[in-house]
Each structure stands twice: as structure tokens, then as C-alpha cells.
Design brief:
single chain; mainly alpha; 2 helices; 0% strand
Length: 58
């Protein structure tokens, strides 16, 4: 059971590593929820492109 949870957790946490470390979004920048949500959505899209790039080029 724990192995299954760890397998799922690893797949979920890798995109957040990109967002926090590569894009430097460890803390929010704006006070408003709307701007932070928009920025998070934008960074999630960029992260999907970076992760998917290795599958597109092969």
C-alpha cells in the first residue's frame, strides 16, 4: 500500500519541483489571489511543456 502511494506521490511532486526550483516560485509574489492563480496556471503550463519535451523529441 505504501509503495503505491509513493509511486503516485513521486509523479505528482516532480512538476512542483520544476515550479519551485527552476522557475523560482517557492513563495507567492502578489497579494491578490487572482494574480497568484494566473501565475501558477502559467507556470504549470510551462512545466508541462518542459516535461513533455523529452517525449516529443524522441
Amino acid at each position: 500500500m505504501e509503495k503505491n502511494k509513493a509511486h503516485i506521490r513521486a509523479k505528482v511532486e516532480h512538476p512542483f519541483r520544476y515550479i519551485k526550483n527552476i522557475f523560482g516560485y517557492g513563495k507567492v509574489r502578489y497579494r491578490g489571489l487572482k494574480k497568484n492563480t494566473q501565475r501558477m496556471s502559467l507556470l504549470a503550463g510551462f512545466t508541462n511543456l518542459l516535461i513533455g519535451k523529452k517525449y516529443l523529441l524522441s
